[in-house]
Amino acid sequence: MGDKTLHDSHARMPNDDFPPEQTRGRGESLGADRRTKEIREKILSSVQYIAAIPPAASKALDILMDPDVDLPKVIPCLEFDPGLTSNLLRLVNSPYFGFQRDITSVREACIRLGIRRVRDLVVASVVGPIVRQSIKGYSLESCALWEHSVATAIASEKLSGALGIQMPFATFTSAILHDVGKIVMGTFVEIGSGPIMRLSREQGLDFNKAEQQILGTDHAEVGAALLHEWSFPQIIVDVVRWHHDPEEAPEPSISLDIVHCADGIAIMSGIGIGQDGLRYRISDDVSKRLGVSTKIYERVIFETLTMMTKMKDIFSLTSI
Question: CDD domains from the entry (predicted)?
Answer without folding.
Answer: HDc (cd00077)
